[in-house]
Amino acid sequence: MLTVYAARERLRRREVSAVELTRAFLERIHALNPRLNAYLTVADEAALAMAHEADARIARGDDTPLLGVPIAIKDVLSTRDMRTTAGSKILADYVPSWDATVIARLRAMGAVFLGKLNCDEFAMGSSTENSAFGPTRNPWDETRVPGGSSGGSAAAVAADLCCAALGTDTGGSIRQPAALCGVTGLKNSYGRVSRYGLIAFASSLDTVGALTKDARDAAIMLRAMEGRDPCDSTSVEVAPIDVAALERGLDALRGLRIGVPAEYFTDGMQPDVEQRVREAITHLGGLGAEVREIRLPRTPLGLPVYYIIAPAEASANLARFDGVKYGLRVPGSDLIETYMRTRGAGFGAEVKRRIMLGTYALSAGYYDAYYIRAQKVRTLIKRDFEQAFTQVDVIAAPVSPTTAFPLGAKTDDPIQMYLADVFTLPVSLAGICGISIPCGFDRDGLPVGLQLIGPAFGEQRVLEVAHAFQQTTDFHLAKPKLNHEPGIA
Amino acid sequence: MLTVAEVERIAQLARLALSEEEKARYARQLSAILDYAAQLAELDVEGIPPTATVLAVHSVMREGDDVVAGLPRTDALRNAPDTDGVSFIVQATFDDED
User: Fold this and answer.
1) The domain A4-259+388-477: what is its CATH number?
2) I want to staple A311 with a disulfide (CB 3.0 to 4.6 A). Which of A16, A20, A104, A358 is the partner?
3) Is A388 exposed, middle or buried (0-12, 13-18, 19+ CB in 10 A)?
4) Of the candidates A322, A336, A356, which has its C-beta nearest B26's C-beta?
């Protein structure tokens, strides 16, 4: 298991070159990806070119935080000259002419891009089964889903097919797959990281972040990506992450108040998920934190609010896919029919379902009853958290009510699939931050995630607590058995 | 329960060509989701302001444009479904008589 931090140390000490590291990852990807389908595009040539350039910079004495480190990118982020599909047939051959801001920043820091990672189409889903290019398989059990929508990112990190992966989280799409694949995934506060160049799903909820092998890497990745971007008017400048401060270690927990919301432990949840999460909270208490019960009474409303607001925003954002300037075109007898055929053929079932739902919620006669009302309840959900954070510093909860479920188990029942995100949606609606970290395994050996939630722009503390947990546990070091061991030391 | 006719109306608004099978399926599935969302109607939200964005942002005047190079034509056209190398080729929006 090679972290970003360890890779950088080895590169700095010249124990390994960026080209050697990149070749080793590419070899492992080509061996394992036919089974896992984590990568949609493996960018062998581009990655090696970037690695050569990184080695040249290292030889000149350059020392930026990601120089020569091989990472991979969820396929909803625009990458210059590298195919970007959003997991959709409608963009199957789309090659962007520019980089997303986060991609440009990582490129400037000398990161090596191994390729683009599978996801649910337009990031809509909780299992990666909505990808037009087939599902990704969970490295811990290849008959199960990796979660979603950043399922390719989670699987690639879990299977050591990159040092770290970029993902996006609109309602849980970083945290839930991180939990189901046993990796670390930080959903940043809305506005902390630029969305420019992200193919938009729900613009008031979309966030960009990383899935990593530990909390320190999560801090390194956030530090590399965060900050105001003139191209995204909703991006904000806040005090940057202090990666070195994570080494305060257990001091972070002394006197820390951790809230445990009763509403996040529901009857329907898998018993060993509840057990592992409660054990993790007890562990944090043992390290010096003060654990107390809190209430977040509007938690169950997150799901209905989200499934009005997100589809409404999506129906507007996806209007741009019309077969005129880019993407698939299926000609009809006139322009309207061309639009309808293009979109009917180009979008998959879940995307069409959400466009329909959003169009309905925004249509005359329903706008107030659904959309405005959902926005008002969103205010109540946000207030729940604001109230809670007057009493506690961090909230600890499960990420998902279950561990990874079998492929196909929920594809016929949208509401069952949506319920997989019931514990991640409220954080997204409130625009605050949350991290998923591994906290043990169920009886079948599948990973369980612990969610640590902080207030808006509270990533520093959340990362410090996550790091302290990982300094005193080894769940994040466990690896799936893939019966394939070449390459990455 | 949404009718197939209502589904057709929404699909027309959303510019989505749907098969008969899809129309029937979406009538059923969208109804189930809207039933689930009906619990929002039971809440008292009197006096609660809607949240459109979580950020405390407000509109400001732009400081002035920086002149930067635009996207070169070849880059803008590289993903075009149909192009003559200069323009996007699309169907006419209006008839000649209009």
Assistant:
1) 3.90.1300.10
2) A358
3) middle
4) A356
